[in-house]
Amino acid sequence: MDTDDVRASDLVAALGRWSAGRGPLYVLLAARLRRLVDEGRLRPGAALPPERALAAALAVGRTTVVAAYGVLRQEGRVIRRQGSGTRVAEAALVPGRTAETANPLFLNLLEPADGVILLSCAAPDGPPPELARAYRDLALPATGLGYHPAGLPALRAAVAARYAARGIPTDPAQILVTTGGQQALALLTRLFIAPGDPVLVEAPAYPGALDLFREAGAVLRPVAVGPYGIDVDAAVRTLAEHRPALAYVGSVHQNPTAAVLPPLRGRRLAEAAGHFGVPLVDDEVVADLAFEGAAPPALAACADGAEVISVGSLSKVVWGGLRIGWVRAPAGVVTRLARLKAVHDLGTDVPAQLVAVSLLAAYEPLLARRRAELRAAHDHLRAELARLLPSWDCPPVPGGQTVWLRLPYGDGVSFAQVALRHGVAVLPGACVDAAGGSGPYLRLHFCFPRDVLTEAVERLAAAWTAYDGSSRPATPAALGGVTV
Predict the structure, then answer these.
(1) Is residue 110 packed enough to be buried (19+ CB in 10 Å), middle (13-18) or exposed (0-12)?
(2) Does residue 313 lie in a domain region?
(3) What domain range is 302 assigned to?
(4) Among 180, 112, 130, which Cα is nearest to 151's?
(5) What pLDDT, in 10s, does the model give residues 296-323?
(6) Which of 310, 343, 361 is the last residue before a domain boundary?
């Protein structure tokens, strides 16, 4: 389907047995169309059939096609313009790509470009010396098969002890060790979500989670995030009205905004989720990275008896290459997750788990150094942005690894294309907002050394100078002095 206009009959043939699944028809149709876009079989710029024509060809109601197109528009995979119908978005796929994801965060990792500074993927720039020492001193067990689907007992105990030290009593049976935080989210998605299920998400949110939920065929129910985290009143209404299969939040240094949810609001959210029987997942992979003082209380500590499923990881404090994450959940949920994990990989790499045990035994000095480095880098990045891009609005954050900044005009997706041509990759706000908002926003991280951050901002400044001026709102002078 390489032509500019896709005929309904050709698209029906490409869709195949799209309706052979569980869930509403529009969700199944959107899932199959998404795959055709991501595989490159529906090319950027191609015009999709009108809703009525495709509905007739598929023998479904027009509302099914309208809803499916609407899902893809919300994801940024298609666009609709008056007079030109629905087209595959130009930014959705680079010609020739056959990737399973159009998420720029992952695409920059899958297809790295030489000389590009990746401000799109937030993680330490290299392994700390403690990691090399831990591997050098590693002592492997003398016997045993090495298969631990739920995790090495010593690591489960070490992670449980860290929760207990934070005021969250935890038994090792409540800990599942995973291959990074992303696998933790993937297993939870597989356990709780079926096609067509509603899922409460923040807007904006971590794009890796959004991809997992969409892949599972979920119907996303976004709730806005403000300076103090998710809008709890709106979240409670969503829980009551939709009874989602899962609610996903980041209560401490939320990704991408770095907002912190106050404990009282967190308690209300957890109690509401418990009341409506909705599993509440708190992504706390950056919760330890507060710039000053102790880390804010985790949602599980504020729950006051309500059950919260926590997801953690060593990738943001230690190194992304150490693929160690975990889930803290009721023991029964951990048992079910372990069975799912066994099907996929029989358990996380044992040497890496042994190294994690060693690191957690002397974690505080490493954590303190990491927090200090991030605070200095955060201040340097904001200073450079203020110097070279003073029109950009970049509020300070209390911790984490990212800032959430607003462009003075234009659109983050289109500017990201210009920035990439100037050698820096950024994450546009629209790519992380399931509500379809955050267009003028960008997420930048500050995990790099000061000299790299300076170079990155200089490239962003050059890209901004070159950015299409048509994005700037017209001024009265530009309109010949006529005010409209």
Answers:
(1) exposed
(2) yes
(3) 129-361
(4) 180
(5) 888 998 877 778 999 999 999 999 999 9
(6) 361
pLDDT class of 294 with cuts at 50, 70, 90: confident
Encoded tokens for 83? 């007079």
Quote the number of domains for the chain: 3
Q: What is the CATH number of the domain that holds 461?
A: 3.90.1150.10
- Measured CA to CA in angstroms, residue 418 lies from 44, 422, 428, 460 at distances of 18, 7, 12, 9
| 476 assigned to some structural domain | no
Q: Does the pLDDT of residue 476 top 50, yes or no? A: no
Query: Is the per-residue pLDDT at 479 higher than 50?
Result: no
pLDDT at 112: 65
256 and 349 assigned to the same domain:
yes
pLDDT tens across 205-216, in order?
Answer: 999 999 999 889
Who wins on pLDDT, 294 or 334? 334
pLDDT value of position 431: 86
User: Could you tell me if 110 and 140 lie in one domain?
Assistant: no
Which one-letter amino acid corresponds to residue 109? L
Same domain for 276 and 145: yes
Q: Is the pLDDT of residue 483 over 80?
A: no
139 and 113 together in one domain: no
